[in-house]
Amino acid sequence: MKNIVQPLLEDYQIGDLKLKNRVVMASLTRGRATNAGLVPTPLMARYYAQRASAGLILSEGTWVSAKSIGFIHVPGIYTAEQIEGWKLVTKAVHDNGGLIFSQLGHIGAASHPDFFDGELPAGPSAINPRTHSFTPQGFKETPTPRELTVAEIKQTIQDYKQAAKNAKEAGFDGVEIHAQMGMLIPQFLSLATNHRTDDYGGSIENRARIIFEILDVILEVWNSTRVAIKFTPVAYSHVGIVTPDEETIPMFQYILKKLNHYNLAYLHIVGPAEDLTGTPVEVLQDNYFSHFRHHYSGRLMANLGFTQESANAILKEGTADLVSFGTPFIANPDLVMRFKYNLPLSEINRDTLYTGDENGYTDYPEAVYNGNSSQSEEAN
């Protein structure tokens, strides 16, 4: 791919933001906020700064409130101390010429009483999502949650708004709403976990209501082209009972139709990791991203374990505008340079994905380019 024009390396305009390339660093939970306050650390600032050559960095999923927690050592953005910690991160990224969005998340029912002094987590309905929560004592099965009251739903929406304000104060360039499988928003969308009979349950419109109420309050804080949302519409693995059903396709067609009026920074879609044959969404097997492109008129970001070659291909054909990479950015802080010069990628050490120190975090070496990619080596 050396000497070939790569769409991945072209700059790209999102509203008033100019991305220097179309390589996006996807959100990656790394478990390094190893302090009682879940405050971002100088080590985290170094980690993000190392990867600032990406056209855009998406922060790890970040808790919008103390009630949204469900995974150990993940930072929040709801206290003054956390805001100060994130300022270190955004400054480090900006000082290295990068851009960074904050991904705002709430895990809803997929949590555990260990995070709430023994109190049950809450979700759309009192239905166990049947997944696991990573607690301070290790992975534990989720219990049956209690059902959120309407007042609590309204407060949760305001928590997203405050988190969006905090992200702006912390120096982020925008925010991405974390609506992937396993989180609170998909729990509202799912027929399996939402049996409500009020304005937030029943019809497709009601189950999707929380998305647009969250978007609307965040748009009181940020310009629309600084706001994005990420979905994993057809995930099956490790998400318990929140899986695609017979209303998944019409649900997302409804969501996309409404999102067309928002002029968001982008819509971030994660593709299927499994064969969809025999599932309620089998029709998407051979035209997954094209389906979303057909129904969504705005900017589209694709994520599906892309390689350099497949990412350039989807951009070239126009099915996506941006491509996000997760795992490759862990072991390759200089991923963009490796793409530019067609250098081999380093492999990750899975044993250090969620450990609390620099090992397997900030100690992955950059490649040294000597003008011949076949002879390039990694720096010590």
Explain what this protein looks like in three dimensions.
It is a single chain. With 380 residues, the protein is α/β, with parallel strands linked by helices. The chain is 28% helix and 16% strand. The model has no long low-confidence stretch (mean pLDDT 95).
The total number of structural domains is: 1
Adjacency order of strands in the biggest sheet: 3-4-6-11-12-13-14-15
Biggest sheet record: 8 strands, parallel, barrel
Task: Name the assembly state.
Answer: single chain
Low-confidence stretches: none
Per DSSP, the total helix count is: 11
Radius of gyration: 20 Å
Structural class: alpha/beta
What's the pLDDT, averaged over the residues?
95
- What is the CATH architecture descriptor? Alpha-Beta Barrel
Classify the beta-strand content into a percent band. Answer: 15-25%
| Beginning-to-end CA distance, first to last residue | 26 Å
What string, H for helix and E for strand, traces the elements in order?
EEEHEEHEEEEEHEHHHEHEHEHEHHEE
Percent of residues in helices: 25-40%
